[in-house]
Amino acid sequence: MVINKALLSAVALATIMIIIMARPSVQVTVNITNQLTQKILIVHCRSKDDDLGAHAVAVGESIHWSFRDNFFGGTHFWCKLAVEDKRISFAAYEAYFEIFTKWVVCDDGVYGQPDGHPSFLEAGWRRP
Length: 128
Fold this sequence. Notes:
Residues 1-22 form the signal peptide. The chain has 1 helix and 9 strands. With 128 residues, it is mainly beta. 14% of the residues lie in helices and 46% in strands.
Protein backbone atom coordinates (compact mmCIF):
# COMPACT_ATOMS: atom_id res chain seq x y z
CA MET A 1 0.00 0.00 0.00
CA VAL A 2 1.48 3.31 -1.10
CA ILE A 3 0.75 6.34 1.08
CA ASN A 4 0.82 9.66 -0.66
CA LYS A 5 3.19 11.95 1.28
CA ALA A 6 1.13 15.03 0.41
CA LEU A 7 -2.04 13.39 1.75
CA LEU A 8 -0.25 12.31 4.92
CA SER A 9 1.07 15.84 5.41
CA ALA A 10 -2.39 17.33 4.87
CA VAL A 11 -3.93 14.94 7.42
CA ALA A 12 -1.21 15.78 9.96
CA LEU A 13 -1.71 19.52 9.42
CA ALA A 14 -5.49 19.18 9.73
CA THR A 15 -5.07 17.23 12.99
CA ILE A 16 -2.79 19.90 14.44
CA MET A 17 -5.26 22.65 13.44
CA ILE A 18 -8.15 20.78 15.09
CA ILE A 19 -6.16 20.43 18.31
CA ILE A 20 -5.25 24.13 18.31
CA MET A 21 -8.80 25.25 17.52
CA ALA A 22 -10.24 23.03 20.26
CA ARG A 23 -7.99 24.67 22.86
CA PRO A 24 -10.21 26.68 25.21
CA SER A 25 -9.59 30.40 25.51
CA VAL A 26 -8.58 30.88 29.13
CA GLN A 27 -8.47 34.17 30.98
CA VAL A 28 -4.94 34.74 32.25
CA THR A 29 -3.94 37.23 34.96
CA VAL A 30 -0.33 38.23 35.47
CA ASN A 31 0.61 39.83 38.79
CA ILE A 32 3.89 41.55 39.76
CA THR A 33 4.38 42.55 43.42
CA ASN A 34 7.02 44.94 44.74
CA GLN A 35 8.73 43.47 47.81
CA LEU A 36 11.82 45.63 47.54
CA THR A 37 13.20 47.28 50.65
CA GLN A 38 11.75 50.80 50.60
CA LYS A 39 12.10 51.40 46.85
CA ILE A 40 9.68 52.36 44.12
CA LEU A 41 9.67 49.83 41.27
CA ILE A 42 9.16 50.91 37.66
CA VAL A 43 7.40 48.21 35.61
CA HIS A 44 6.97 48.38 31.83
CA CYS A 45 5.34 45.36 30.16
CA ARG A 46 4.34 44.72 26.58
CA SER A 47 3.28 42.05 24.16
CA LYS A 48 3.50 42.05 20.38
CA ASP A 49 0.12 43.77 20.25
CA ASP A 50 -0.16 45.68 23.54
CA ASP A 51 2.11 48.11 25.36
CA LEU A 52 0.90 48.43 28.96
CA GLY A 53 3.08 51.49 29.60
CA ALA A 54 5.39 52.24 32.51
CA HIS A 55 4.00 52.16 36.04
CA ALA A 56 5.50 53.14 39.40
CA VAL A 57 4.70 50.43 41.96
CA ALA A 58 5.15 51.25 45.65
CA VAL A 59 6.56 48.79 48.18
CA GLY A 60 3.95 46.15 49.04
CA GLU A 61 1.79 47.09 46.06
CA SER A 62 1.15 45.10 42.87
CA ILE A 63 0.40 45.65 39.24
CA HIS A 64 -1.71 43.13 37.38
CA TRP A 65 -3.43 42.70 34.05
CA SER A 66 -5.71 40.12 32.51
CA PHE A 67 -6.12 38.92 28.95
CA ARG A 68 -7.20 35.97 26.88
CA ASP A 69 -4.46 34.09 25.12
CA ASN A 70 -4.66 34.64 21.38
CA PHE A 71 -6.37 32.05 19.19
CA PHE A 72 -3.20 30.11 18.36
CA GLY A 73 -1.79 30.40 21.88
CA GLY A 74 1.05 32.69 20.93
CA THR A 75 0.65 35.41 23.54
CA HIS A 76 3.88 36.58 25.18
CA PHE A 77 4.39 39.43 27.64
CA TRP A 78 7.86 40.77 28.37
CA CYS A 79 8.57 43.13 31.23
CA LYS A 80 11.37 45.52 32.02
CA LEU A 81 11.81 46.39 35.68
CA ALA A 82 13.87 49.29 36.99
CA VAL A 83 14.87 50.50 40.42
CA GLU A 84 17.48 53.19 40.88
CA ASP A 85 20.31 52.20 38.50
CA LYS A 86 19.44 48.47 38.22
CA ARG A 87 17.41 46.70 35.52
CA ILE A 88 15.75 43.33 34.88
CA SER A 89 14.10 42.07 31.69
CA PHE A 90 12.10 38.85 31.77
CA ALA A 91 9.22 36.99 30.12
CA ALA A 92 6.25 37.49 32.44
CA TYR A 93 4.04 35.21 30.34
CA GLU A 94 4.76 32.85 27.47
CA ALA A 95 1.86 30.81 26.10
CA TYR A 96 2.30 27.05 26.50
CA PHE A 97 5.44 27.62 28.57
CA GLU A 98 4.07 29.70 31.42
CA ILE A 99 5.20 28.34 34.73
CA PHE A 100 4.30 31.36 36.79
CA THR A 101 1.86 34.20 36.33
CA LYS A 102 2.59 35.64 39.78
CA TRP A 103 5.91 37.39 40.25
CA VAL A 104 7.58 38.95 43.28
CA VAL A 105 10.32 41.54 42.91
CA CYS A 106 12.87 41.36 45.73
CA ASP A 107 16.20 43.02 46.45
CA ASP A 108 18.08 40.22 44.65
CA GLY A 109 15.78 39.80 41.63
CA VAL A 110 12.39 38.67 40.37
CA TYR A 111 10.91 35.36 41.56
CA GLY A 112 8.14 33.15 40.28
CA GLN A 113 5.49 32.70 42.96
CA PRO A 114 3.32 29.62 42.48
CA ASP A 115 2.14 29.17 46.06
CA GLY A 116 2.34 32.55 47.75
CA HIS A 117 6.09 32.35 48.47
CA PRO A 118 8.93 33.34 46.13
CA SER A 119 10.49 30.11 44.96
CA PHE A 120 12.26 30.44 41.62
CA LEU A 121 14.72 33.21 40.81
CA GLU A 122 13.84 34.14 37.23
CA ALA A 123 16.32 36.99 36.81
CA GLY A 124 18.78 38.96 38.91
CA TRP A 125 19.41 42.69 38.81
CA ARG A 126 22.00 44.09 36.46
CA ARG A 127 23.44 47.54 35.97
CA PRO A 128 23.15 49.12 32.51
